[in-house]
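Preliminary data (for renewal application), BES complex.
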Amino acid sequence: MKYIAKNIALSESKDSIVVAIFENGTLSKNAQILDDLTDGAITKLVQSNEVKGIQGEILTLRHLPNYTAQRVFVVGCGKKSEITERQYKILMAKLIAEVKKTQTVELVNYLTEIEIKDRDLSWNIRFAIEMIEESLYRFDTCKSKKSDESAVLNSVIFDIEEKQQSQAEQAIKQAQSIALGVSLAKDVANLPPNICTPVYLAEQAKALAKKSPLIKTTIIGEKQMAELGMTSYLAVSQGSCHEAQMSIIEYRNHPNPNAKPIVLVGKGLTFDAGGISLKPGEGMDEMKYDMCGAASVYGVMNAIAELQLPLNIIGILAGCENLPDGNAYRPGDIITTMKGLTVEVLNTDAEGRLVLCDALTYVERFDPELVVDIATLTGACVVALGAHNSGLISSDETLAEDLLVASKETTDKAWRLPLSEEYQEQLKSNFADLANIGGRWGGAITAGAFLANFTDKYRWAHLDIAGTAWKQGAEKGATGRPVSLLTQFLINQAK
Ligand code: BES
Ligand code: MN
Ligand code: ZN
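Predicted structure:
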């Protein structure tokens, strides 16, 4: 999709435009200009109760008198200056659904004049682009017949004032880079686990280095993991015939090449059957999404390379598969992590933390400025927070706050969970330094507490995206979260 920001008069469009009207039929500035141009066409519709301006109402008008554009979408925005970001996004999605039904190729958007509560023009544009891309996303790679309802829409023009030009262009650039990152993350995540294997993930990581001269990718396979002492990571993988591969995606663009990097570590279980502690069959297909942490890191790395952020950032995709097998690791096994701590495996389905703990130790070598891991780590997090907020755990107040700020800015929501010492008690083992599960209560937190044991060398935060990374049911599909949150966090770090 082409996005353009410019000052454009209503009379210039030959194709389609969209204007806002408010509750009680109050016209927005541009709706008023249109009304004047068209002998009161909009006013007449208001008078005949054809349009009321209530939230989410959309009317498609064709061939208005004295007017060149073929279509006018009139969008109801409710009470003036009271539209929330959520209402705005819903309205955008509805608008695109209407636009898709028509032959609109170029849409001139005058909704830039509506005020979203506590948001400026940049966010008006960014949320619009986010929703347009979201509405147009299709995943039919594995269908023999591709969907033919692909929209003919190919460009959207945002009407702005001249003095807003550079602000608007920056908003478009950021939105497009994030939207592309989101869509790349969705694509890898939606692929089936027989195609998206750990090797496939590593290939995507290598492809990033082909695309951007600022990126260098290194792959670590099982042989090197063994040499490095990543026994815990390998234990999880040993039941699978797919080789575990960890991708290290190094993006260097800080003015000081030796500046400490920000490290993102993504859980990349391309399938999690639970291992010997086998999961129930129902819904098990969804465990192809257990690599969504890695998918989001992949999407973010693409976004920051597009934006050429002046930072050093390292993305890790911790690819692996967890299956039951004659050679699989078992409950009762005691493994020695790369850090040297021993872990008693009480449940082979708590595998994410066993992969991540070695990845977190591995990244010590980069002397990170900070590390954020992103993982579909616990069902308990979904019980606690549902599908709307990712779980955030960190003992670093500033880092936690910075992530929460980015999450609020992008509406890619996160909620902080506590991490106090007591939770470590639940991870005690009679036979090893740690148990890999912490009992029935506070499962999302004890998982985070487990990881905390491996993060003493740097500032660290953990995002549990088990509830937010994909949707279930009729709309089953990856969401691309939290690419938006993380990219915004990095944009803010670059300021
Ligand atoms: N990948 C799962 C977490 C998960 C479960 C994400 C359901 C989304 C939906 C993780 O590896 C897992 O199985 N965790 C266990 C931990 C338990 C054994 C302590 C869980 O949450 O049940
Ligand atoms: Mn599991
Ligand atoms: Zn898992």
